[in-house]
Amino acid sequence: MVTLRDVAERAGVSPAVVSAAISGRSGNVRMSEATRQRVNEAIRETGYRVNHAARSLRTARTGVVSAVVPKLSNPVFEHVIRGIQDQVSSDGGVLMLADAEWLTPDSHLLTRLAARGMTDGFLVRRAQLGDDTIDALEAMQVPCVVLAGPDGTHPSVWVDDRAGIRCATSHLLALGHRRIALVGGLQLPAGRSDSRLLGFHDAFAEAGVAASADLHRPVGYAHPDIRRAVTELLATEQPPTAIVADNVTVAPAVYFALAEAGLRVPEDVSVVAYHDIATVDMMWPPLTTVRMPLREAGAQAARMLTTLIEGERAGGTILEGGAELVARSSTAPPA
Amino acid sequence: MVTLRDVAERAGVSPAVVSAAISGRSGNVRMSEATRQRVNEAIRETGYRVNHAARSLRTARTGVVSAVVPKLSNPVFEHVIRGIQDQVSSDGGVLMLADAEWLTPDSHLLTRLAARGMTDGFLVRRAQLGDDTIDALEAMQVPCVVLAGPDGTHPSVWVDDRAGIRCATSHLLALGHRRIALVGGLQLPAGRSDSRLLGFHDAFAEAGVAASADLHRPVGYAHPDIRRAVTELLATEQPPTAIVADNVTVAPAVYFALAEAGLRVPEDVSVVAYHDIATVDMMWPPLTTVRMPLREAGAQAARMLTTLIEGERAGGTILEGGAELVARSSTAPPA
DNA sequence: CTGAAAGCGCTTACAG
DNA sequence: CTGAAAGCGCTTACAG
After folding, report:
1. Could you tell me if A302 and A265 are in contact, meaning their C-beta atoms sit under 8 angstroms apart?
2. Are A317 and A298 within 8 A, CB to CB?
3. Domain residues for B133?
4. What is the pLDDT averaged over residues A243-257?
5. Closest to A72 (Cβ–Cβ): which among B52, B72, B116?
6. Whole-structure pTM value
7. Are residues A171 and A276 both part of a single domain?
8. What is the pLDDT of residues B196-247, one digit of tens each?
9. Shared domain check, B203 and B117
10. Taking CB atoms and an 8 Å limit, are A52 and B114 in contact across chains?
11. B118, closest residue in chain A (CA to CA)
């Protein structure tokens, strides 16, 4: 194995010079262009590559950031990851991804990842990770940014869910819908304000229309639950003429329930989904969605983590604005 | 920061004893149960956690394995990843995930990951990664297992695509279909045998039926291409009565094209897709698929990588069998 | 502008 | 059964 020392000998300089040439950091070393060239040549000739472990040990910094994502195959989160990756990479770091299912408070993975020298910090999604795991992380004093709305305790970054749902709902109201259902999403414990429900009501207030409060179904994100909720809504005396899907991932279940009931989209029922992913225009009919600046949220979170790693404090941030309606074919005026 | 030395002092033993107690490896150290308990107590009291960088530097082993996956949100690959994760984790290692898009032959990420001391080895998918990146990896002498059929050069593991497509095709033949199209998949360069097309023909041969060779459309996996291919097939003089989707991810595009043409599934056209993912029963009608032992393939690949890391050679493996038809509602006898 | 030396925290022969 | 010592490969003050 080629070491820095070997390169130094070959170039006829001391290890310190090679180290400076590699890192770019000057430190106390100021070298001539000729020397730098000689070093680079020696590196090329020997095929030298820096030993990451040795560097980490010495600098007490790994340059690795770990993102723990809810579910790898969740297409919504893919955008966030891309934002994180771009930022981490342009900062010269490496992003390490793990599935949240693997990470429990006393899992092997958490222990290993949070061991010093493996990762400088974590990006996690609170909703799916569980507060206990995040607390465990905190107890280990590992810098950690939560991808979710502020909760007053952890540094956090997220998009404006309230504005997003408002955007979706306003679109339906503008089309003339009045009986609008909000389907999916978690039933929050009393006291924790539900930003999505707030956004739903914002839209009605803005339009000067009384909200159809009986049409809120926070039944989670499991497909059977979504299907049942929609089926039940359709069976009521005054069924909704439009549905806001709290998350694009549940839209297929909404379509499914509608098809089972023999209803057409958008002739009989309009559907808008929160969050935009590329593949929804493959649904039939193509789904109207609300696009959020998820990639920007990821980048912002990565930046906040860097701040944290460098020892500064950070609070909770919600990215303002950025909600944008992507009109496709699943919404129309009520019959 | 608490070091191993601190723990040793507290427990009244030498660092060597603490090291042995942690790693479980006895080495030359044989310690009494009382000593071991004292050490464990000291670890708990001090909150000591091993420094991964130091250990890696010393042992020249990181315990980290990197998987470079085609596309994070590809639900098919999710199963493979799970298999990898299970195996790596039960071997006491850590799995690091990266998106193939990030990894190009001279990308920052490749350089950093392949730097010594960051990762012991790689699991990569050839199809999407590009041979040049794999060659770069090889030039760096990083142990590397390819998730794909054997190509004679790289150690590799994959499921039996030929058997999988045969299973799907046989199902349609058994239902009475004769005009069967195979849609999607890559157009391989001449000379490289296409295991999927072979499987397609196997099924016809087995059924004693002449294959409908004019119905093979290896147009890749892009949704517009799939849609166009299906639309064109439907416009021919003798359109297919059934379609095998080369990959489940293109099934929505097939449904889309069928819906556009005003055809019903399965009354007018039957559809089977290769690979099974949980969400396909949310499609309307629920999609019949072929399930493959993808998780097992992932585990097997991880095991092979460990072998490679330990310095032994390895060849190409195809997991035999395991193809299983999952019948849902998208297939029926021809009208 | 460059070199010699110390030391990051661990593990592993080696000596007792 | 346990301790003292060397050294993994790097970076960083420090001295020149």
Report:
1. no
2. no
3. 61-159+293-321
4. 94
5. B72
6. 0.91
7. yes
8. 999 999 999 999 999 877 899 999 988 899 999 999 999 999 999 999 999 9
9. no
10. no
11. A52
